[in-house]
Write the structure tokens for this entry.
Amino acid sequence: MSHKKKPLIFEVSQNNFEDLVIHNSSHLPVLIEFMGIWSEPCIKTEYAISDLASEFSGQFIFAKIDIDEQEELKQQFSITNVPTLVVFKDGKEVQREEGELQAQELRILLKHYGVFRESDHRREQAREKHIAGDTQAAIILLTQAISSDPSNVRVALDMAQIFLDIGEIEQAQSLFDRLPEVAQKLDIGISIASQLNFKRLAQNTVGIAQLQAYILKSPNDYQAYFDLAVCLFSEHDIERGIEALFFIQENDAEFKEGAAKEMIGMVCNMLEGTNPEQAKLYRQRLANLISQ
């Protein structure tokens, strides 16, 4: 029988605010979301916090306040935008954030109040080592994190990302394939799956240098532009890759039955979890082109 604590998630009203928020905040941090059920950013934020409340069961309280149902609380806290997140600790408001927060931003917020996994701390250290060029140290840190907290699938995803970065495609694919479906569908999992796909596609091209030479010789060689975009994406060069696709879309939207449009959409999906603002800009740019 499982003894895992249930997530502490409550619908809060004026009647129970004192008990659920004020009193409880003396024991645990309380994260309040002032939300509207009609707002997509509110719903996304609610899902993200609920997932974290399940992951960190019993470590913080998630209090949801519907501003349309709780006008008095809305006025009391001067809520003008949703979602608005308010953190209560020891009976008082200690932090406020407006707008949708991504899962990683919420993790950083919660860590400030002592809600975090030690393995995530090692993930951060590993990321810093990898960026600084000490990939071996990063792999050692992630190996330690996996050993101490095997349930944290994000550690394994970070390891798969490092394998991709150093060109160990088969190791990355093998590790990724062994992960549960729920891990593969996380934002970082979707990103890694897309990168693996681009790596495989790139292996069937002549490579960046040769493709650039083709384009220099034949500026309207759309196949070369398309293959170049694939290669650039496989190397994390999103900006240059997307520009190659937009060049095709602007000049020959019907190339390979709209292949550029389709791949721009794929890249936007890949960016949605890690860089939603950039994904939104690319989608808007594509929509503007299509409507012309």
Remarks:
- The beta strands are 8-11, 30-35, 61-66, 84-89, 92-98.
- The first strand starts at residue 8 and ends at 11.
- The CA atoms of residues 151 and 237 lie 32 Å apart.
- The first helix runs from residue 17 to 23.
